[in-house]
């Protein structure tokens, strides 16, 4: 019987090998015919990239091919560094602007400011170039120089900047909130991020002998290196604990990752903040600490990415990132929410159905589920951007006002003290007086649809007067949206203005006092009985 099974397996493998060889030959012939006979010239590299991308699109969005020209992007993903000038840029119309120079890096040292328009790069006009075009031109080998033409306040000037290896901080800010609680913001899981978080927590614990708890903020963090996630869990868990296990097609590649160091503390209260954009390594940290009943998870359900990728080197300095396994956290669950091996009739990958979700138990016996990300222990209401705020942001009016504000004010109060006063908000409203920021609301769209249906069903003569009156009243009411949503708009103004003076660190610090998730974390950790109950402690 065993001989029969082995024989059948061998035949299946031979059949698959033949299919691979056959289809590779077919592909080569198609490409050869294109090159020889297609009416226009075919760019070999571009055509092949399109073919490869189309093939990989049938897998999952994390399996990608990178030609040699994209190596800076790979370095940024893996190590949080790249060769460049150290500045964010964004596009407005046909022009690209400096959006945020990173503190202490070449663009900042050269005096570039948010709001500077990029006019030229190495003497070539940047007008009409896309954000991607300009970004690619600004990046390059560390140590090389680049001359950029800029415009500020109608004045043109040039700066020659020497590129350097830009290392982005994984932890842009940490400090104290609520007096006796430590707060650590982690942006990404790149090489060394575990050490950055450990040092931040260590400093916070050393700075206050009575530190009452630690808040780890993983909101918006899409993940990264798995070993860094294990090191962060290790800060609060003993050495030798299994944090994550990977399982894939190649059994020899399966692995179990355990904590390797002594923890900083196994008993200090911990809260982890997550949202819908917390994914992958963020879910390993939050999910493992939840499975160990070591931290209270606060916020919104996470993204649900339980897939692991490896980077494979290829010929001609190309690389491929490929999904090789799924990961499983201590309770045994995999939190992958989308099943890319099954597609609906439109070709879209489907979510794992509720009927296939399995219950697992945490260390203290709490029930948790696989198949849909990390469900928080304390769920917070998601905050949706209002129509007016979305319009002001999309049309760069918040950004442009901050640029104008920076020109008028050389200094402002520290981030913890600065606020959007009545005078500043009134100035912003005045600034908008001649700007277009029209936007469509759900109510407006419903009235428009009602008109269409009424016209179709021949009720228009009967209700047109009421609809006209409704629209007129709504227009008057909508004009008050700028004040109705003042708090939301003020938060956006605060963040943008603080960035002009205190960079990313100042923006984060200034936002903490109005952060509902942080206030909830403090409230949860300050109530020991409630905190223990959430963790299932007897």
Short description:
By secondary structure, the chain is an alpha+beta fold. It has 17 helices and 23 strands. A hairpin with a 2-residue loop joins strand 7 and strand 8 (155-162).
Overall pLDDT = 90
Total domain count:
4
Second-tier CATH architecture of the largest domain: Alpha-Beta Complex
CATH class of the largest domain: Alpha Beta
Q: Please compute the radius of gyration using only Cα atoms.
A: 27 Å
At the third CATH level, what is the topology name of the largest domain? 2-enoyl-CoA Hydratase, Chain A, domain 1
Q: Can you say what the CATH homologous superfamily of the largest domain is?
A: 2-enoyl-CoA Hydratase, Chain A, domain 1
**Main sheet overview:** 6 strands, antiparallel
Give the helix tally: 17
User: What is the straight-line distance between the termini?
Assistant: 54 Å
Number of strands: 23
Shape summary:
globular
Strand percentage, roughly?
15-25%
Unreliable spans are none
Q: Which structural class do the helices and strands define?
A: alpha+beta
As a percent range, the share of helical residues equals 40-55%
Structure description:
The protein has 538 residues and is α+β, with helices and mostly antiparallel strands. Helix content is 40%, strand content 22%. It is built from 17 helices and 23 strands. It has helices spanning 2-37, 44-56, 71-79, 106-109, 131-138, 193-207, 226-234, 281-291, 387-394, 397-408, 422-431, 442-456, 460-478, 481-484, 486-511, 516-526, 528-534, and strands spanning 64-66, 81-84, 87-92, 95-101, 117-121, 124-125, 145-152, 155-162, 164-167, 173-177, 181-185, 213-217, 242-248, 255-258, 270-274, 296-299, 307-313, 319-328, 338-343, 349-351, 359-361, 367-369, 378-379. The strands form six sheets. Strands 3, 4, 5, 6, 7 and 8 form a six-stranded antiparallel β-sheet that branches. Strands 10-11-12-15-16-23 form a six-stranded mixed β-sheet, sandwiched between helices. The longest helix is centred in the N-terminal third of the chain and has 36 residues, at 2-37.
């Amino acid at each position: 019987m065993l001989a029969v099974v082995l024989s059948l397996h061998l035949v299946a493998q031979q059949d698959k090998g033949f299919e691979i060889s056959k289809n590779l030959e077919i592909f080569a012939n198609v490409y050869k015919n294109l090159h020889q006979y297609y009416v226009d010239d075919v760019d070999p590299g571009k055509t092949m990239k399109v073919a490869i991308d189309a093939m990989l699109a049938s897998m999952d969005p994390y399996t990608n091919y990178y030609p040699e020209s994209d190596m800076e992007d790979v370095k940024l993903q893996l190590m949080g560094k790249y060769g460049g000038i150290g500045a964010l840029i964004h596009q407005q119309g046909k022009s690209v602007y400096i959006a945020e120079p990173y503190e202490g890096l070449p663009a900042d040292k050269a005096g570039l400011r948010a709001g500077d328009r990029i006019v030229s790069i190495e003497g070539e006009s940047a007008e009409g170039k896309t954000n991607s075009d300009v970004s690619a031109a600004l990046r390059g080998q560390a140590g090389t120089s680049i001359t950029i033409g800029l415009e500020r306040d109608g004045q043109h000037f040039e700066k020659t900047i020497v590129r350097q290896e830009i290392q982005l901080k994984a932890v842009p800010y940490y400090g104290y909130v609520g007096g006796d609680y430590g707060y650590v913001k982690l942006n990404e899981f790149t090489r060394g991020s575990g050490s950055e978080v450990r040092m931040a927590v260590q400093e916070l614990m050393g700075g206050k002998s009575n530190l009452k708890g630690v808040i780890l903020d993983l909101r918006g963090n899409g993940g990264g290196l798995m070993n860094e996630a294990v090191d962060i869990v290790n800060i609060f868990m003993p050495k030798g604990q299994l944090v994550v296990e990977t399982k894939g097609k190649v059994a020899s590649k399966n692995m179990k990752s355990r904590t390797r160091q002594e923890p900083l503390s196994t008993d200090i209260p911990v809260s982890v903040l997550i949202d819908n954009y917390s994914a992958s390594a963020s879910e390993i940290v939050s999910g493992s600490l939840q499975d160990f009943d070591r931290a209270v998870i606060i916020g919104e359900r996470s993204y649900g990415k339980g897939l692991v990728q490896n980077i494979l080197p290829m010929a001609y300095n190309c690389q491929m990132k490929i999904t090789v396994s799924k990961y499983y956290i201590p309770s045994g669950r995999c939190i992958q929410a989308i099943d890319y091996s099954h597609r609906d009739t439109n070709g879209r990958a489907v979510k794992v159905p509720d009927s296939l979700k399995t219950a697992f138990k945490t260390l203290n016996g709490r029930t948790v589920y696989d198949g849909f990300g990390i469900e928080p222990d304390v769920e917070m209401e998601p905050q949706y951007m209002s129509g007016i705020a979305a319009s002001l942001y999309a049309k760069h009016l918040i950004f442009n006002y901050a640029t104008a504000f920076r020109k008028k004010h050389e200094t402002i109060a520290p981030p913890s003290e600065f606020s959007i006063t009545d005078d500043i908000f009134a100035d912003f409203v005045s600034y908008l007086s001649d700007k277009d920021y029209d936007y469509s609301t759900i109510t407006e769209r419903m009235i428009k649809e009602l008109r269409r249906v009424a016209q179709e069903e021949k009720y228009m003569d009967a209700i047109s007067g009421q609809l006209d009156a409704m629209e007129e009243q709504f227009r008057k009411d909508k004009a008050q949206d700028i004040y109705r949503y003042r708090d939301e708009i003020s938060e956006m103004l605060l963040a943008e203005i603080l960035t002009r003076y205190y960079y990313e660190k100042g923006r984060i610090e200034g936002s903490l006092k109005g952060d509902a998730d942080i206030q909830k974390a403090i409230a949860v950790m300050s109530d020991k009985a409630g905190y223990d109950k959430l963790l299932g402690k007897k």
